[in-house]
Amino acid sequence: MSSHREAPEVSQDPSVDNTDTYAFVSPDRPDTVTILTNYIPLEAAAAGPNFYEFGEDVLYSIYISNSGTGLPDITYTFRFETTVLNKRTFLYNLGPITSLDDPNFNRRQSYSVTKQIGKGAPKLLASGLRSPPCNIGPHSTPNYTKLSQAAIHRLPDQEVVFAGQRNDGFYADLGAIFDLADLRPFQTLHVAPMVPSVGLDTLKNGINVHTIALQIPITSLTRDGSRPKDVDAAVSTIGVWGAASRRKMRLRGDTTGQHTESGPWVQVSRLGSPLFNELMVPMVEKDGWNGSQPSGDSEYADGVKQPELSRMIPDLYPGVFESLKALAKSGKSREDMVALLLTGFKKGIFPGFQNYTGPIQSDMLRLNVAVPPTSTPQHLGALDGDAAGYPNGRRVEDDVVTIFVRMLAAVINDRFDKGFTPDLAVKVVTQGVPIPPTGPVGSSSRFWSGFPYLGDPFSGFDNPTVTSASGPLPNITIPGVTP
User: Fold this and answer.
1) d(C-alpha 185, C-alpha 349), whole Å
2) Which among 357, 437, 434, 422 has a CA at the least distance from the CA of 383?
3) Confidence label for 175 from pLDDT (cuts 50, 70 and 90)
4) Element (H, E) at 403
5) Distance CA 339, CA 343 (A)
6) Is 25 within 8 Å of 371 (Cβ atoms)?
């Protein structure tokens, strides 16, 4: 969740696991779009001495489709390189890291960015771009915001880029969701009633992620090079997804630990809309989905037209979702879910926007760039009247779990099936997790109001999940030693 460990193979290969993809018109630079792709799920903050990093043997990609084909029209690729300055120590850092060039920063990563338009020749935009260290603690990384801000780079095509560790912005009660879909405020009506009325944000404390962030001028994303103002124009909508690939062949090294890779790149992970592979694809097909392209997603349409979880919810909550139960039994195609995940919404379904990309079924985040940012974002996005939020792209604040569950429970199916009446319960169902706050850049907030929009990662030193069972430690005096 959103796609943390969502497939059997990728769950064993975290450096390629694309956990979340975001795409939104930048609130502080509305002539640009920001795209975030996250990798390496559930990073524990206190993870030394070998801290998390991007894979040197991985090709990370961000794809943009602006032609309605489900195929990439613009591709950004990222390759990482790791350098160890002192090869005779086990330490990640030899003292406080006060800058990206600090000699104490022993194990460091840099990367290159390449851009390709259509099937044209790839263009190297930059190389040797520096990533910040992981946030180790106040002794090792005493001013982490300064380090992360120094790792924001401007590219020659006017893009802004960042790659490094961040606070994981995805918020969800993972334990309740996968414990047979415990939902609120109906927790006492579950077939196995649950007492807690407030959800637990599993990723709230001490969980980080690695982020590749791009901010791109809108005029570089649309197929005619314009900055659209008409939300109903086809040119206003783009599709976005992230992916990771490995070489087809890998030879494991000997006692030196050096491996060699060869052959073509093979995609092993991808993510557009949140929760697609997680909830729509059968377990035995998940790895195949990760290796496929959005343009072929009609192969997985049956799981969207008749979602498994939509059939389960009425049985888990007897008497609460009777309309949904009848709809699931009818076998009708869920065209509301098809629009959410495979085609986008046509004009007239939601006030203020459409993000329809045509009949080709493909899993992408569909963003209408003509919809301006909202000064006060509503966390339920379009379901709450905020056309700038999911499913119009995806902002970091959007509560995609609650939105997705309400969609599965057919909250707007009456807009597609005039004979259907949604259950009264569906408009109040929630995962029950408080919305994390947004603060200025450099604050301790989980979300920032500026690039890269995800706040500084937790450090292991001050991990808020760690508490003393016996209270504060007593002051200890040692004779002859002045503290």
Assistant:
1) 27
2) 422
3) confident
4) helix 400-408
5) 5
6) yes
Task: Give the number of other Cβ atoms within 10 Å of residue 265's Cβ.
Answer: 16
Whole-Å CA distances, 310 to 83, 314, 426: 49, 8, 12
Rg of the chain (C-alpha set): 23
Confidence tier at 209 by pLDDT (50, 70, 90)? very high
DSSP code per residue over 244-311: EEEEEEEE---TT---EEEEEEEEEEEESSTTHHHHHS-GGGHHHHHTS-GGGGGGGHHHHHS-HHHH
pTM above 0.90, yes or no: yes
pLDDT mean across residues, the chain: 92
Average pLDDT, integer, range 225-238? 97
pLDDT bracket for residue 469 (50, 70, 90): low
pLDDT at 266 over 60: yes
Q: Residue 27: how many CA atoms within 13 Å on its side-chain side?
A: 20
User: What DSSP letter does each residue of 30-72 carry, written as one string?
Assistant: TTEEEEEEEEEEEEESS--SS-----TTEEEEEEEE-SSSSS-
Distance of CA 91 to the CA centre of its chain: 31
User: Which token pair is 464?
Assistant: 């808020």
Residues 87, 90, 95, 101, CA torsion sign: positive
Q: Could you tell me the end-to-end alpha-carbon distance of the chain, in angstroms, rounded to an integer?
A: 47
In Å, the largest CA–CA distance within the chain is: 85
- Retrieve residue 77's tokens: 């690729």
Domains in the chain: boundaries: 10-448
Does residue 465 register a pLDDT over 80? no
Inter-CA distances, 460 with 39, 465, 470, Å = 19, 10, 20
Per-residue model confidence (pLDDT) at position 382? 96
Separation between Cα atoms, residue 431 and residue 186, nearest integer Å: 10
Which residue, 51, 162, 39, is CA-closest to 111?
Answer: 162
Q: Which amino acid is at 423?
A: D
